[in-house]
Recover the amino acids of this structure.
């Protein structure tokens, strides 16, 4: 697996958990106390934990946290220790400081009985042709199809 792929895919593989998962799980394991709703740690802890686990230090330390905040779920070794009705998230807690924080589960879904609004795809062909399957491609489609306007009822302009 190329190095940048290893950095970007925090899920388990055939070889076991990757380094992002191992680092985050170890940080949580060392600092968690039963009954805690917040587990603080620092950016330096990522460096120290990577060295202790004898794994190559990621080039972009911020990507370790970004991955678990926005791309994938935390390892089950962390999520199973959340208080009843809560889930663990990673949130900023100051400059170079973070914390695992237990928060209520927020489930977003369609309301029962909500009507379906069909929106024709107005994405220009050139944009559609080169759009990848990442968040920027999705944002481009949202913008070109004026999804925010349609669902808020307010005319919106991009900056």
């Amino acid at each position: 697996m190329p190095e940048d792929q290893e950095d970007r895919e925090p899920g388990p593989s055939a070889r076991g958990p990757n380094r992002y998962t191992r680092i985050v799980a170890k940080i949580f394991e060392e600092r968690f106390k039963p009954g805690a709703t917040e587990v603080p740690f620092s950016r330096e802890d990522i460096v120290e934990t990577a060295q202790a686990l004898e794994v190559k230090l990621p080039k972009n330390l911020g990507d370790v946290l970004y991955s678990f905040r926005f791309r994938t779920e935390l390892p089950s070794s962390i999520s199973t220790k959340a208080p009843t009705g809560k889930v663990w998230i990673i949130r900023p807690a100051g400059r170079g400081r973070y914390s695992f924080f237990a928060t209520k589960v927020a489930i977003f879904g369609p309301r029962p009985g909500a009507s379906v609004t069909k929106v024709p795809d107005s994405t220009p062909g050139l944009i559609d042709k080169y759009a990848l399957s990442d968040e920027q491609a999705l944002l481009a489609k949202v913008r070109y199809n004026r999804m925010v306007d349609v669902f808020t009822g307010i005319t919106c302009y991009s900056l």
Q: What stands out?
A: The chain has two domains: 3-104, 109-159.
